[in-house]
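Is this the right way to post structure tokens for a design question? Let me know if I should format differently. Anyway, here goes:
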């Protein structure tokens, strides 16, 4: 009887030990899972632009995922967030050519293309703008391993809405120039007008053979901000057009 009683006690201890082993295995698995949570891996490969937490800082679980790092996945292709006025957005289309410059490289022009025109407008101070995304190549160079274009730079964009080939052009400053009082000559020349020549009438001043100012009426078309397309007028290539005074 004593042997039978001892056997039952040993069987009970064995069952308890098995339960303790299972409980320890569950605790080990739970600890392994929690340990895995301690290592937070980036979902993408890239360059860390900014870290928003410090080593040892506790990250609390919440409904909103906390921001820990800002990462640029691929700096060989950059995207520019542009805001275009509602008066100009009608001339912007997908795949449109864009040239731009940045303050860091003032004597250099970069090229890109429109990859997205967003429909959601933004209204700030009664000014309605539309977000436009421009994509540009940014190859790595020996002097610039991450490319010349860096995140956060301000870009001045020029969208190619139309092209003109084989035309004469006038500086924009020439159309804005107003001679000093007492030096305004009489207007000469009348620009040709026709069904196919619709543009804006203007006046420019050229330097005559004797060094005097001569007023010329012109008809201009499209412009890129620096030059106007000359449609007609008594101005020919090589004329000294006045853009200002010293």
């Amino acid at each position: 009887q004593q042997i039978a009683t001892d056997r039952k006690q040993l069987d009970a201890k064995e069952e308890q030990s098995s339960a303790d082993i299972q409980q320890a295995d569950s605790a080990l698995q739970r600890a392994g899972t929690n340990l895995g949570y301690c290592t937070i891996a980036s979902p993408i490969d890239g360059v860390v632009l900014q870290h928003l937490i410090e080593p040892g800082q506790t990250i609390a679980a919440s409904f909103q995922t906390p921001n820990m790092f800002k990462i640029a996945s691929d700096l060989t292709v950059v995207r520019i967030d542009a805001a275009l006025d509602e008066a100009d957005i009608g001339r912007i289309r997908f795949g449109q050519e864009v040239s731009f410059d940045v303050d860091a490289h003032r004597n250099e022009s970069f090229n890109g293309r429109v990859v997205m025109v967003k429909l959601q407008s933004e209204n700030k101070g009664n000014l309605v703008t539309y977000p436009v995304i421009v994509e540009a190549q940014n190859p790595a160079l020996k002097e610039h391993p991450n490319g010349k274009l860096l995140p956060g730079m301000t870009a001045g964009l020029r969208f190619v809405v139309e092209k003109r080939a084989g035309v004469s052009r006038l500086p924009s400053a020439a159309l804005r120039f107003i001679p000093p009082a007492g030096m305004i000559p009489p207007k000469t020349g009348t620009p040709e007008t026709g069904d196919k020549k619709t543009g804006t009438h203007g006046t420019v001043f050229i330097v005559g053979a004797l060094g005097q100012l001569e007023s010329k009426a012109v008809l201009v078309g499209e412009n890129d901000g620096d030059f106007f397309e000359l449609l007609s007028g008594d101005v020919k290539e090589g004329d000294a057009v006045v853009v200002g005074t010293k």
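Format looks fine. Someone answered above. Worth noting: The chain is about 15% helix and 35% strand. The longest helix spans residues 2-37.
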